[in-house]
Amino acid sequence: MPIHDEEENLRPLWHEIREVLGRLGLPAEVLYVNDGSTDGSGAVLDEIRAADDRVRVLDHDRNHGLTAALDTGFRHARAPVIAMLDGDGQNPPAELEKLLAALPDADMVIGWRRDRDDPWIKRVSSKIANGYRNWRTHEQIHDTGCGLKVFRREILERVKLFDGMHRFFATLARMEGFRVTEVVVAHRPRARGRSHYGVWNRLWKGLSDVKVVRWKWRNRLTAKAVERGVDGDDA
Fold first, then answer.
1. CA gap 124, 25 in Å, rounded
2. What is the pTM of this model?
């Protein structure tokens, strides 16, 4: 969970996460990546960590952005299945149960905020960005920006993130042959704090990154080899 100045959301969100973990009854760890917060987020994270030994907190030296925070969490995660969740409280942690339930038939399950509860300008800009990305990358993903995703850690062995590439995480995984599916998830308005991402700079950054993904798609290696003299049952 990437965190940047979310002091007011951390305690209620942790309460929800703890309830979900209790219902799942599975061994788990919760990784918070404190991405250069300047409010009281660090102190609240220390409080949460001290109260539950499943919690780990990773601190960035400064604010590096969402992709970097996710990448740090991915590299430090130890479980065979990894879940992503935003720290703003708009994605209900309970929806992770839906994604986990769909994982047996996929390698990555991503949330689709079909009834998104955001200002109209955010909804419109996301619709434009998603439509353009799908057109240029031959994808059919409804909501690349949803912070709810669950995936098998094997994907991290094949997919490397660069700044801004979290928006294309599902496409990059599919490019490597992994199965990706979508599940409709609930979404709620931000109750506390403020958004840290501007609409227009996020939109233009995402659109400009499409050409990088198109280059990767056109130049990906797809060769398959069969070794001579080796029985398929023994390979």
1. 39
2. 0.76
Amino acid at 29: E
Give the model confidence (pLDDT) of 193-209 as tens digits: 666 555 445 555 556 66
Q: Give the residue among 68, 72, 74 at the shortest CA–CA distance from 154.
A: 74
Q: Identify which of 78, 98, 227, 68 has the alpha carbon closest to the alpha carbon of residue 160.
A: 68
Q: Which domains does the chain have, with CATH numbers?
A: 2-218 (3.90.550.10)
Total length of the chain: 235
**Positive or negative: CA dihedral 201, 206, 127, 3:** negative
163-202 core/surface letters (b: 16 or more CB in 10 A; e: else)? ebbbbbbbbbbbbeebebebbebbbeeeeebeeeeeeeeb
Per-residue pLDDT reduced to its tens digit, 111-170: 988 777 655 556 666 666 655 565 555 667 777 778 899 999 999 998 888 777 777 888
Distances (CA, A) of 77 to 54, 124, 135, 156, 210: 12, 34, 33, 11, 28
How far apart are alpha carbons 179 and 135 in whole angstroms? 20
pLDDT tens across 90-113, in order?
A: 899 999 999 999 999 999 999 988
pLDDT of residue 145: 79
